[in-house]
Sequence to fold (238 residues):
Amino acid sequence: MKRVRPVTKFLLSTAKAALVVVCVLFLLIVSVLLLEMPGARRFDRYCAHPDLKTLLNAEKDDVTDVGDFERDGVVFTLVTLRPCRFLASGPTVLVYDDKGRLCAKSYDEGEDWEFQKTWSRPWAQACAETIRRLKTIRMPELFFCAPSTMKDLSEYLEQATKDFDRPDIPVEERGVKFVCDETVAVKAGPKKEKQNSGTLFPSPCGGTTVSVWEVLTNVCNSVECRFDVHPGKVVIRE
Fold:
């Protein structure tokens, strides 16, 4: 029986490992593309509306803000919509001229520096910075169970962002403010069997941490509500 040389064996093992890595990367890329598709289709739908009035009527549930932007005597309308991009750093923004025609758009304002430079809003960069902080501040994983409410969660997360923010930030500047709209304040978390007396408490998986963004997204999805990010503030609403 012919023996396989050590060098050949090493090369085969390396090739197999490389193939596994390539397959994993391929699956990751495909997964990201699939997750991007719903948002991309929604963005195309937003842009397909013929004018501002039609957009506001058809997408009123997705519109989070409408503001004026004056330039050279012309008043433009900036419509902010819920993010389309998967793991977006900012909202989707469409710009309409004084005749209600679409003249500019941003798929993800938080990372669209050219758009921010052209349509520089004082709060645009601040919103992107708030999102970055929500994604980088990590806290112990927790359970959100009934009878805890969304108001309880908002207070808990506000304190957590202060406790786990970067230590180099002055104490008075740490954290993100959370505001819970009255329409969702009393919404409770799901009931769990044999739960402890406390309802907002760390996970027993010692050392497990999650970002505040992950907690906020998962909980809002579980109770069917949404949130808007403002400079230094998060508003939880229906």
